[in-house]
Amino acid sequence: MRSHYLASTLGSLLDGELRFAPQGIDIELPLSMTALGEVFEIGPTHHLIGHIRGKEAIGAFTFDRADPGDILLYPAMWTADSNMKRRLIVRPSYDGEPVVGREAEQRAMLGKRSTMFISRVFSMLSHSLLSAMTQQSAFGGRSWTALVGNDESVKRAALLWLNSILALVNVTAYGQTTHSGRATLGVKAISGLPIPDFSANTAAGERARAVADREFERLSELELRPASYAWNDPSRHQIDDVALEMLGMDTPAARSALDQIRRLWCREPSVHGGNRRIMRELGIDA
Question: Closest Cα partner for 58 from 6, 109, 99?
């Protein structure tokens, strides 16, 4: 990271605190940080799930792109589809057909479906969502991995957090950033991604889940800009405010700190990727 303030804030977050020196913020998180794989079962890779028709015939299902209005019988979150995935609740982009002779594999994959997913190849320049939900259970795919769990409140809290600025700062440091403006997460790496333990059976955990349940429907109606525009995206700001409230840290000072953190993060070359339009709006000399 170019900004040592941003790097310091991330380091504190991984230690279970929110520190931002310019604002004098030093708050201990009420929930311990844990690994995503401790909160959810991480779904299988696309190699096990199936393949796109006409490609190498691997996995249990053959997938075709779904048209609007189709009834999806074996839906899958296969591709990123950035223009179609701007809200927290999205529609799967592909539907599958069982491959003859692979019934055992199909039964195994059907048990790994979910309504919550995390992006494996997150482009800050075009993608709005690091995590998304579907209304019906679906498979993951090449671009999305299923996060399998039974507690809907935990899913809502984790989803809001994963699309907040603090999670975005985290994933750009944690993921592979060999391409500027993009963070890639392997399936095994997803399991270790740090996240507050929203499944905790504590007063703090109950509070986080209650706030998420109360605010989720409203936030799910918002349309988000690509992540690299987080500094001036009012919808993202609302998610950030709720993320702070889930952790009992929704103070004016903390909100002001997040405003500066958003601006610092968006000015990172690994986030704006040298995009001239974004740099111009941020006031950066190209």
Answer: 99
The Cα angle at residue 195 between residues 186 and 108, in degrees rounded to 5: 50
Residue 212 to residues 23, 35, 160, Cα–Cα distance (Å)? 26, 20, 7
Query: H helices then E strands: how many in the chain?
Result: 12, 15
286 pLDDT higher than 70? no
Name the pLDDT band for 83 (thresholds 50, 70, 90). low
Crossing angle for the helix pair 234-246 and 152-162, nearest 10 degrees? 130
Place of tokens 């796109």: 52
> What pLDDT is attached to residue 285?
75
Contact between 74 and 95 (Cβ < 8 Å): yes
Alpha helices in 152-251 (DSSP H): 152-162, 165-174, 187-191, 203-220, 234-246
DSSP class of residue 139 equals B
Residue 146 has pLDDT above 90, yes or no: yes
**Token pair 């003859």: residue:** 100
CB of 195 closer than 8 Å to CB of 35 = yes
